[in-house]
Amino acid sequence: MKLETLVIHAGQHPDPVSGAVMTPIVLSSTFAQAGPGHHKGYDYSRSGNPTRNTLEACGAALEGAAHGLAFASGCAATTTVLHTLRPGDHVLCSDDVYGGTFRILDKVMKPMGITATFVDMSDLARTAAALRPETKLVWLETPSNPMLKVADIEAVCALATKHGAVSVVDNTFATPVIQRPLALGATAVVHSSTKYLNGHSDVVGGFVMTRDAAFAERLRFLQNAIGAVPSPFDCYLVLRGLKTLHVRVERHAQNAAKIATWLRDHRDVARVYYPGLTDHPQYAIAKKQMALPGGMISFVLRGGATGTVAERSQRFLSKLAVFTCAESLGGVESLIELPAVMTHASVPAETRAALGIDDGLIRISVGIESVDDLIADLAQAFDASR
Ligand SMILES: Cc1ncc(COP(=O)(O)O)c(C=O)c1O
Question: Does 195 qualify as catalytic in the annotation?
Answer without folding.
Answer: yes
